[in-house]
Amino acid sequence: MKKLSTVFVLILLLKISPIMAQNTQAKILVLIHSDNGGTYELAKEIASGIESSKTASAVIKLVEESQNSKLKNIPIAKVDELPSYDGIAFGSPVYFGNISTGMSRFLSKTVDLWTNHALEGMPATVFMSAGSGAGKELALQAFWNSLAVHGMVLVSNGIRGTESINKAIPQGNSVLGVTSMASLKDVERPTKDERGLAELQGRNFAKTALALKGTFARKQSVAATAASSEDINHLLKQKSITLPKVPQPAGNYKPYVRSGNLVFINQVALKDGKILNPGKLGVDVNEEQVKEATKATMLNVIAVLKDAVGSDLNRVKQCVQLTGIFNTKDDYTKHADLMNTASDLTVEIFGEKGKHARATFGASSVPVNSSVEIQAVFEVE
């Protein structure tokens, strides 16, 4: 019996140990805007330093989608997730002695967090890709000013590591945070020493984040509380709504185009590689078949939209406009009834955010002999 008890205790300890390890680790977000990948290269070194002691974990996220192929698979951060971390390392290119437009745009959305004191007491550190180096101190200071308004604990790099860097070439060291002189092509950038300083900054920041873990209140914004109860990605599973693979363009165009916060999408009734219920209503197909094709078309639209927002449909703020084009005879007048299928599906998935302006009309033909084409405009984060 004693042996059995010992075995039971050992098994219990083996199960509990990983959970305890997770609870004692600091969870740190490395939040970046990167144009040409220079900031991302520093971010990887920062993350490596954070995780080097095994007392903290790091995740790199972008503030907005990037067209750079190096950054395509990096997840996009949401403003409301920031309070869930034990510390945040912010990275940005230098724009005219200031933080980048992309980072500034993201920080401008944190008003709700500021109002709710959601980031007060949380440690923060900064790093930048500084081009020629001109204005880097101004830019770092601007970063600090923005984060100080939130009451974050600002962790500097000090003069750590500067004694061992190669002083024969320009380096991006700064007491406020590491930078890289990205536009100087005398050597590969970031240099070995700039990478080393970034790794050292990450290590130091992890120690501070771990020390402060649990000392500040995690206050969610009102928007975050609402979002947690309306996870659209979970809703799709709950309702058994399966999105198809994103249809590939058949010509010289893209599945979607994003302009500012608007995403523009056009789709037809493609399903499993072929057009579902093709032809003209009243000649080749009936109304029920066109409604089925309309649903398939709208699912294609949402699949493309999901791709446009980095696989997170919670980033959709509003369905702005849906336009339905139906392949009908000249005397047909019930286009709105057909389009209700797409509208109902959109509202079912997105709720109030799915309610939209709408237009419907008939056409003598639709591309690839589809019975329907849908044009959609969405506003996203």
Give the second-level CATH assignment, the architecture of the largest domain: 3-Layer(aba) Sandwich
CATH H-level superfamily title of the largest domain: Flavodoxin domain
Structural class estimated from helices and strands: alpha/beta
Q: Determine the fraction of residues in helical runs and give it as a percent range.
A: 25-40%
Look at the structure and give the CATH class of the largest domain.
Alpha Beta
Largest sheet descriptor: 7 strands, mixed
Supply the number of structural domains: 2
Question: Spans with pLDDT under 50 lasting ≥5 residues?
Answer: 7-22, 221-229
- What's the alpha carbon Rg, rounded to whole Å? 26 Å
Mean pLDDT across residues:
87
Number of strands: 14
As for the CATH topology of the largest domain, it is Rossmann fold
Signal peptide: 1-21
Protein name: Atu1372/SO_1960 family protein
Organism: Chryseobacterium kwangjuense
Domain Flavodoxin-like: 28-205
